[in-house]
Design brief:
152 residues, alpha/beta, membrane, SDR_fam
Length: 152
């Protein structure tokens, strides 16, 4: 690949989600998109589009380390964009809260992006790149809580 080729790595590219839409848009803009999906998920939606993809579980350090090596080999050591999109959400009342589910949310939503930045920061710095952290779909799917405030 030439020096001019830009690379974007996007986590959480399951079928029909924000990650899938992002890698398709990067590809449309001639950025070499690198998608990640959980090892247990189907990659058909990415393969059909000709999008480079790798399995990744952001909560497993070896998975992140393996991904870094693959991305290094592909890009030559430079990464223009890292989008930390992988995330999970469980909706539950305080009474029904399952502590293990909450721990899993923190592992994926907080520690996952931290681990990705830890492993990929040198490649981002080399490219003078950008890190984007997506922490919620609240801007897309608003909750009624905020909307009812003016009526109080």
């Amino acid at each position: 690949m030439s020096h001019e080729q830009k690379f974007a790595l996007v986590t959480g590219c399951g079928k029909g989600g924000i990650g899938e839409a992002l890698v398709k848009e990067f590809t449309r803009r001639r950025v070499h998109a690198i998608a990640t999906i959980l090892p247990s998920e189907s990659s058909e939606h990415l393969t059909e589009e000709g999008i480079t993809w790798f399995p990744l579980d952001v909560t497993i350090e070896k998975s992140v380390a393996d991904l870094k090596q693959r991305v290094l080999d592909l890009t030559g050591g430079s990464l223009d964009v890292l989008v930390n999109n992988a995330g999970i959400c469980y909706t539950m009342t305080a009474i029904d809260t399952d502590v293990n589910s909450v721990k899993r949310m923190f592992d994926v939503n907080l520690f996952g992006p931290m681990q990705m930045v830890h492993y990929f920061h040198d490649m981002i710095i080399r490219a003078t790149g950008t890190i984007v952290n997506i922490g919620s779909i609240g801007g897309i799917v608003p909750y009624m809580y905020g909307g009812k405030k003016p009526s109080d």
